[in-house]
Amino acid sequence: MALKTSSPRKGGISRANGPEGLDSIPLRYGDDPYVWACWLYYEDGMTQGEIAEAMGVSRATVNSYLADAREKGIVNISIEPARLASLTIAQELKRHFGLADCLVVPNDDNTRPLIGRLGAAGAQALSKMIKSGDTLAVAWGRTVLSVGEHLDMAPLQDVTVVQATGGTTASFAYTPELTTAAVARAISARCVNITAPAIVASAQMHDMLLAEPLIREQFDTLSRANRIVFGISSLRPNSTIHTSGFFESVPLQHYLAKGAAGVLAGRFIDERGRHIAGPLDDRTIGISLEMLRGIGTRVAVAGGFDKVPALLAALRGGYVNVLVTDAATGAGILRADGVTSLDGKLSQRQKSTPVANAYRTHVKKFLNNPNDVVEEMLDGLIAAHKPYLQPIGNSRRALVARNGPRPGKVGLVIGGGTGHEPCFVGYVGKGLADAVAIGNIFSSPPPDPIAKCAVAASGGAGVLFVYGNYAGDVMNFEMAAELVEEQGIPIRTVLTTDDIVSSPVEDKEGRRGVAGNFFVFKVAGAACDRGMTLDECEAVTRKANDRTYTVGVALESCSMPQTRRHNFEIGPDDMELGMGIHGEPGVSRERIRTADEIVDTIMDNIFKEMKAEPGDRVAVLVNSFGATPLMELYILFRRVEQRLSAKNITIEANWVGHYCTSLDMVGASISILHLDRQLTDLLHHPCQTAILSINAPETDGAARG
Amino acid sequence: MQTFDNASCGAIVLSMAERIVENRAYLSEIDGKIGDGDHGVNMAKGFGMAAERLKGKNAPLAESLDTLGTVLMTEIGGSMGPLYGVMFTEFAETIQGVEKIDAAAYSKMLHAGLSGIQSIGSAKVGDKTLLDTFVPAVEAFDKATAEGKSFGEALEVLVTAAEAGRDSTIDLVAKIGRASRLGERSLGVLDAGATSCAIILKELSEGARTRLV
């Protein structure tokens, strides 16, 4: 639903020519009663009567507001395309053939065979129609048997189900007897079979059998039928009619020569639906076409493209007034009967539901040689942040803080793939990380630069590795740790695992590290800078990680510089919940909602795990994945702040901006660090890096701290 | 007994690198479906760099594999860098000094590479990783030689098993690595590592088979 207000007048409401009773229109709707009415109806779920009362107008006025609102485009109602198509086809079939009702199953679901889906739909139709006291006639067939198998309804009273034709050979599963019995059983009805063959040897035998009192009684029941369900057989070579045994020994050629298009309850019709007389007429025991046409509710359940001519014939002949079919067959019937407007209707409708691929083939980027992006970025980055960091030796994949490492201090080494800027290099400097190892895009650095970092960061008190929990990073950092420990430098590792939706709480250690890195690095850097021991540094860093909770949502995928294509696609109306920082798909895909609703989902997830009491303090990070602008981040922060203050949780510090990105992904993450005294203290400890300066003596004016 | 010559077969590594570079876009494409889409790029970078260093040197197979392993291990990073790095380094060490490589030596080499991978990674067969290609390929090779098939025949069996293993990942749910966060959504897609592993094993084994004497 899209709501548009027209030039709201602030404050002033009363209008001499305005509709009656609108003086009290709430401010938020401006002076637009249409929007007000729509809101109450679609959003608040009020009835038209309740709305009339709330608005102080008549019910008829509410009704016309709602109708006009749709015409004016204030309200847009959209239906899923496959369902829309089947509804459009159903409506057109109903109109074109003057049916009482029509049910068309979409063809989007090809996981189940058509017979089963038609059976389920036919069962649904029947269950709405059959009432206590009815007599339902049932013709034989595979589809009708499927209806019986799917039928499941509360027991009715005094319902009779009667077989519409005589019996056939039992060499197949959908004989008239079995089909009728299945339907009767499903609705707990009395079952009346016709205890004579459907086709007998001679007209004489036919007359004799019908003279039998038992069979006459059965026929009396049949003649009382007020509803009938039947299938329709085509005469195509693959039709079951050839294998069913129903017409054994009968030359179908006779009927085909006369232009037979289909068979209904054992009777042949031509393409106009007229009965074709033939040698079988006098030998067939079962409902006649005249009898059938006299029944009130005549439900045909059939589908499949080969049945189009037969179905069309039955519709033209007026044998059907409730049709259950599938979308492809329905459309085929309409086209075969010369309905040309259908295509227009289907395509016209679809224009309003954007299904076209909205993505370009290539995403525009500032590039020279796509293979050199990391190297060229490092050229720029090392030059730009010269005051804070420098390459270790000649390796630009290992950078050290200019005034970071010092004797007696635990060294802090961070690192990971590129594409997350300002992560990780932005957090290297005094009071934060001492060195950073830099990998390729979204790819861990190899052991060598990590080892170089560790050696450079070492001040003789050991080195702490802090990095995100990803298989590649773990392997490379562990190999580096082994290399460095051989040189007598003790290494401790804390893996960040703040992404709380990446794995359930029982598997907390398996979670990935995302933007919450920011808080964990900050605390670790402060602990190291305070001169805490390696043990203490590790413990407090672990605590910071345990108390950091992040959830991300992506709206659009990111694109790699080498491919310049989206790594995957998120549909026009979708979002990906649980998106990490590598552009790998998230945990679940949902319809996009309002910013507040998205924040609420995120915060609800966080509150579920964070045991915060009123009065507790937190630090908040609202982080862009790359392409989401600050404007939207502030909108998100606004709601985060509301949710926290409603719980009386104080925001001790907050950051809103690009802190851990995923190239050009559209989306954002929210991280909350649940503070305690020690963490608060460390959070405020001075630091000075390219991206983050806190309480630093000479704070860079542009620093986003 | 069929063997191939260590000293003159270094070119196998060059053609392996060529295949990987050729498949750069394809490997990234399938990786992008459930991973982060960089597998082809990183693999091509590492194999390309190794090929640069080896070109024109006519180095023996062991030395070529060692160069490749070292480049992957030290320059590439990610998870494939160390995994394939260890595998090739182990391959190289096993056949170092073996003049004529026979089926037994080849098997020994494969097993060393496999245990190298298993020593740093924690994946098992069925987790939708390169092991789903590697393990059945090695098993098929050993079984074929145990049944008395020639080295050449066993190499053919190995390639078939590797490709079947690769295809088996389509029906697997990822249990490890980034794709594992997807759970059931990782079904229906080839694993990129299993695919590159099939390329590597095929090139290595075909290269060996055509050089058998």
TrEMBL record, chain A:
Repeat in keyword set: no
Top-level division of the source organism's lineage: Bacteria
GO BP terms in the entry: DNA-templated transcription initiation; glycerol catabolic process
InterPro entries named among the record's database cross-references: DhaK_dom (IPR004006), Dihydroxyacetone_Kinase (IPR050861), NagB/RpiA_transferase-like (IPR037171), RNA_pol_sigma70_r4_t2 (IPR013249), RNA_pol_sigma_r3/r4-like (IPR013324), Sugar-bd_dom_put (IPR007324), WH-like_DNA-bd_sf (IPR036388)
Signal peptide annotation: none
Record's keyword terms, sorted: ATP-binding, Kinase, Nucleotide-binding, Transferase
GO molecular function: ATP binding; carbohydrate binding; DNA binding; glycerone kinase activity; sigma factor activity
Domain DhaK stretches: 369-694
GO cellular component: cytosol
Gene3D superfamilies on file: 3.40.50.1360, Dihydroxyacetone kinase, domain 1 (3.40.50.10440), Dihydroxyacetone kinase, domain 2 (3.30.1180.20), Winged helix-like DNA-binding domain superfamily/Winged helix DNA-binding domain (1.10.10.10)
Protein name per the record: Dihydroxyacetone kinase-like protein
Originating organism: Shinella granuli
UniProtKB/TrEMBL annotation, chain B:
GO molecular function terms listed in the Swiss-Prot or TrEMBL record: glycerone kinase activity
Gene3D superfamilies: 1.25.40.340
Residue ranges of every copy of the DhaL domain listed in the record: 7-206
GO cellular component: a single term: cytosol
Coiled-coil intervals, chain numbering: none
NCBIfam families: dha_L_ycgS
Protein name per UniProt: Dihydroxyacetone kinase DhaL subunit
